[in-house]
Amino acid sequence: MQAPSIPVDETQRLLSLHSLRLLDTAEEERYDRITRMAQRMFGIDICLVSLVDAHRQWFKSKTGLATCETTREISFCGHAILHDDVFVVEDASRDKRFADNPLVDGAPYVRFYAGYPIQSPEGHRIGTLCLVHSEPRRLSAAEELTLIDLGRMVEDEIRTSAEAVVDELTGVANRRGFHLFANQTLAVCRRTGTPAELAFFDLDGFKQINDTYGHAAGDELLTYFAKLLIKCFRDADAIGRLGGDEFVVLLVGSNGESDVALNRLLVLAADSGCEVRQKLAWSVGVMRFDPERHMTVESLLVEADSDMYDHKVSKRAANG
Q1: Over the stretch 158-194, which tens digit does the pLDDT of each residue have?
Q2: Which of 45, 167, 202, 245 is catalytic?
Q3: N or C: which terminus of the chain carries fewer CB neighbours within 10 A?
Q4: Going edge to edge, which strands form the sheet with 112-119?
């Protein structure tokens, strides 16, 4: 086994890594969503956001793996950060650098590895977004570009880690956070041909609820609705609150899954207990992503918003 060499900028690299204060922090949905999406898009066992510390690699996000860290000496990511480009091992069992590595000889029985070297805002390679699989495989040129795109999404999340991207009331993405993630994601979908849908929600009669029951009850209803969205949509779907009583969900890799989630949302909402929750109702518009028509998430939002308004008008007409 060949242990990874130490980068020439190691001191500055570690200072840059530690200044981000990401090591040993809690899991965050914005990173986990990227690793889940990568695992599904590439069809691999494991996807990680790995940060390479002085003597260990620690996983800020991990999909398909329970371990939180390994020693740096046996890490594939320690090798990946020595390169500017994507580092690929097609069959670790046939590569003299890794053939007797304990991660190859034992669980998770690594055969394929591909790692994009993540750079800190100062330009130091601090870790990777990496793909791991238990069978040998190759990474096509198109797949490599996709991994680069996803890796840059991780870098963008790191750069904005000190900025507010989460709605304080509901815990889902705020307008800025949703737009950042959605625009990056749709760029990947456009290039790879991955389907996507956007659902735009507006709560019906919300002002009247605030006027009748008070703003505290209105805030509780907004929080409750956000929790329902989290329960009903898939883990990899991006949920955001645009402001007021408007919510959005971006479904990546979706071929009509929004219908299933919307039906489940109706069922769960019908089981609400307290009086205010029983007032919960919404209008929704769903728009399928068209890479020729939707150059940004804003254009997709406009069409989904229009579809939502049509739904609201039809409900009013039906109710007289």
Answers
A1: 987 756 677 889 888 889 888 888 888 898 889 889 9
A2: 245
A3: C
A4: 69-71, 56-63, 46-52, 125-133, 112-119, 87-89
**Of all helices (H) and strands (E), which one includes residue 251?**
strand 246-252
User: What single string gives the DSSP state of each residue in 157-170?
Assistant: HHHTTTS--B-TTT
Please give the model's pTM, rounded to 2 decimal places.
Answer: 0.64
Give the chain's domains with CATH numbers: 10-140 (3.30.450.40), 175-318 (3.30.70.270)
Number of residues in the chain: 320
**Which residue's entry shows tokens 């959005």?**
248
245 is catalytic: yes
What are the pLDDT digits (tens) for 193-243?
A: 999 999 999 999 999 999 999 999 999 999 999 999 999 998 778 899 999
DSSP H helical ranges for the chain: 10-19, 29-42, 77-80, 102-105, 141-159, 175-192, 206-213, 215-232, 257-270, 297-318
Cα 147 from Cα 191, distance rounded (Å): 12
Mention every residue, 6+ apart, whose C-beta is less than 8 A from residue 286.
197, 198, 199, 200, 258, 262, 304, 307
